[in-house]
Amino acid sequence: MSFFVLILLGVIQGLTEFLPVSSSGHLVLLYKIFGIENDVILLSILLHMATLLAVIVYYRKEIFKLIRHPFCKTNLKIVVTTIATCLVVLALHPILKSSFGGSYLSLCFVISGILLWISDIFSKKEIAPYTPCDITNIPMTYTQAFVIGLSQGVACIPGISRSGTTIAVSKLLGVKDINTKYSFLISIPIIIGSLLLEIIGGATITSVNIWGVLIAFVICFVIGLASIKVMTNFVRQNSLKVFSIYLFVLALFIILNSFWFKLF
Q1: Dist. CA 231–CA 211, nearest whole Å
Q2: Separation of alpha carbons 112 and 27, rounded Å
Q3: CB 119 within 8 Å of CB 168
Q4: C-alpha to C-alpha distances, 120 to 94, 163, 171, 176, nearest whole angstrom
Q5: What is the 3-class SS of 179-243, one letter each residue?
């Protein structure tokens, strides 16, 4: 894998992680375009770790407050969400490996687009001006936290946006204002857990330039940190339909390529 491709992967991950368009789906699409077949899952997780680090730095005050109050209601809800996500991931495990080959990419982009469109229609009247809330006691029930966790589990499949799915489901459940922040907070244990599972499973990067990966990691982190505020505010304040249209067009391009273009 060339140095240029690794840098491009880092840039795309940094830009798309904070938009409801599936950063993992975009990475898988690039893997297909450049013919990358080895180390794709571990590489995706490492790049997600870079944007996760950006999330931790950006939300450091909230995270430190949650650490200082380990048994607060928000932490308990994050645990409930994480358990629900793990249950779904275990159930879907047989298809997760193959999904990184891009087999379901166009279908998953369409599913993400439909979910965003539906949530935008049915929750539009529920949107209220942003009001800060106590991070240790976010206005959400444990049932809502569990359902959000189930949706996050399904979104582990590349092409189904994790942030888009959890934000859309949160809106449909009536969870307003804090859904973007909560979406990124619940990604922390899942991404860390995914990396640990890959390491425990003996995964190593064998066919990738290590220095290239490190530089891509840094670039991904810097771009992610620079864009997180702008992008999360844009997502919160604007219609999600624009992202739906983008995903539909992207899915159509992949389908047309499969039948006619044959570019990758």
Answers
A1: 29
A2: 16
A3: yes
A4: 32, 14, 8, 12
A5: HHHHHHHCHHHHHHHHHHHHHHCCCCCCCCCHHHHHHHHHHHHHHHHHHHHHHHHHHHHCCCHHH
- Determine how many CB atoms are found less than 10 A away from the CB of residue 241: 14
Length in residues, the chain: 264
Cβ within 8 Å of residue 253, ≥6 positions away: none
Contact 30, 67 (CB under 8 A): no
Q: What SS3 class is residue 128?
A: coil
User: 80 burial class (0-12, 13-18, 19+ CB within 10 angstroms)?
Assistant: buried
Check: pTM over 0.85? Answer yes or no.
Answer: yes
d(CA 164, CA 22): 8
* Per-residue pLDDT reduced to its tens digit, 148-191: 999 999 999 999 999 999 989 998 998 866 678 899 999 999 99
Q: What are phi and psi of 37, to 5 degrees?
A: -125, -25
* Element at 31 (helix H, strand E): helix 23-33
Q: Are 12 and 250 in contact (CB under 8 A)?
A: no
Residues 6+ apart with CB under 8 A from 83: 146, 149
User: Coil, helix or strand for 53?
Assistant: helix
Q: Are 192 and 60 in contact (CB under 8 A)?
A: no
Confidence category of residue 131, pLDDT binned at 50, 70, 90: low
The 10s digit of each residue's pLDDT in 22-40 is 999 999 999 999 998 877 8
